[in-house]
Amino acid sequence: MIQLTRKRGYGQNLGELQEEPKFGAVAVPLCHQGRVLVCLNIVFLLRAVKDKQAQHKIVAEILHTRKLIEERFGMRG
Predict the structure, then answer these.
(1) CATH, range 2-72
(2) Domain ranges of the chain
(3) C-alpha–C-alpha distance, residues 4 and 7, integer Å
(4) What is the value of pTM for the model shown?
(5) Do residues 70 and 76 make contact, with C-beta atoms less than 8 angstroms apart?
(6) Angle 7-68-24 (CA atoms, 0-180°, nearest 5)?
(7) Rounded distance, CA 9 to CA 6, Å?
(8) Structure confidence by residue, pLDDT tens digits, 19-41
(9) Do 15 and 22 form a contact (C-beta atoms < 8 A)?
Protein backbone atom coordinates (compact mmCIF):
# COMPACT_ATOMS: atom_id res chain seq x y z
CA MET A 1 0.00 0.00 0.00
CA ILE A 2 2.81 2.43 0.85
CA GLN A 3 4.59 1.77 -2.44
CA LEU A 4 1.38 2.37 -4.42
CA THR A 5 0.71 5.60 -2.51
CA ARG A 6 4.24 6.86 -3.17
CA LYS A 7 4.06 5.88 -6.83
CA ARG A 8 0.83 7.71 -7.56
CA GLY A 9 1.60 10.64 -5.26
CA TYR A 10 -1.50 10.48 -3.08
CA GLY A 11 -3.31 8.24 -0.64
CA GLN A 12 -6.96 7.37 -0.72
CA ASN A 13 -9.59 5.61 1.28
CA LEU A 14 -12.81 4.67 -0.45
CA GLY A 15 -14.64 3.23 2.53
CA GLU A 16 -12.11 0.53 3.42
CA LEU A 17 -11.83 1.59 7.05
CA GLN A 18 -14.22 -0.47 9.13
CA GLU A 19 -14.61 2.33 11.66
CA GLU A 20 -15.85 4.83 9.04
CA PRO A 21 -17.21 2.90 6.05
CA LYS A 22 -19.44 5.77 4.90
CA PHE A 23 -16.54 8.13 4.27
CA GLY A 24 -13.86 8.42 1.62
CA ALA A 25 -10.74 10.56 1.60
CA VAL A 26 -7.85 11.65 -0.57
CA ALA A 27 -4.59 13.00 0.88
CA VAL A 28 -1.41 14.43 -0.62
CA PRO A 29 1.86 15.32 1.08
CA LEU A 30 3.42 18.77 0.73
CA CYS A 31 7.18 18.32 0.69
CA HIS A 32 10.27 20.46 0.94
CA GLN A 33 13.77 19.12 0.35
CA GLY A 34 12.51 15.55 0.30
CA ARG A 35 10.67 15.75 3.61
CA VAL A 36 6.94 15.78 4.19
CA LEU A 37 5.99 18.98 6.01
CA VAL A 38 2.21 18.61 6.03
CA CYS A 39 -0.57 16.68 4.34
CA LEU A 40 -3.58 18.17 2.62
CA ASN A 41 -6.70 16.03 2.59
CA ILE A 42 -10.31 15.99 1.53
CA VAL A 43 -12.91 13.84 3.31
CA PHE A 44 -16.28 13.14 1.70
CA LEU A 45 -19.38 11.03 2.07
CA LEU A 46 -19.16 8.12 -0.33
CA ARG A 47 -22.86 8.35 -1.15
CA ALA A 48 -22.25 11.91 -2.39
CA VAL A 49 -19.26 10.95 -4.55
CA LYS A 50 -20.38 7.68 -6.08
CA ASP A 51 -18.82 7.50 -9.51
CA LYS A 52 -15.16 7.12 -10.44
CA GLN A 53 -15.21 10.27 -12.56
CA ALA A 54 -16.09 12.40 -9.53
CA GLN A 55 -13.41 10.66 -7.46
CA HIS A 56 -10.83 11.32 -10.20
CA LYS A 57 -11.88 14.99 -10.25
CA ILE A 58 -11.22 15.25 -6.51
CA VAL A 59 -7.77 13.69 -6.97
CA ALA A 60 -6.95 16.05 -9.86
CA GLU A 61 -8.03 19.10 -7.86
CA ILE A 62 -6.08 18.21 -4.73
CA LEU A 63 -2.95 17.47 -6.80
CA HIS A 64 -3.34 20.82 -8.54
CA THR A 65 -3.82 22.59 -5.21
CA ARG A 66 -0.67 20.94 -3.85
CA LYS A 67 1.28 22.22 -6.86
CA LEU A 68 -0.01 25.75 -6.33
CA ILE A 69 0.88 25.73 -2.64
CA GLU A 70 4.36 24.30 -3.23
CA GLU A 71 5.03 26.89 -5.96
CA ARG A 72 3.69 29.76 -3.87
CA PHE A 73 5.88 28.91 -0.88
CA GLY A 74 8.93 27.82 -2.86
CA MET A 75 8.65 24.24 -1.69
CA ARG A 76 10.44 21.53 -3.59
CA GLY A 77 9.74 17.80 -3.40
Answers:
(1) 3.30.450.40
(2) 2-72
(3) 5
(4) 0.82
(5) yes
(6) 55
(7) 5
(8) 888 999 999 999 888 888 999 99
(9) yes
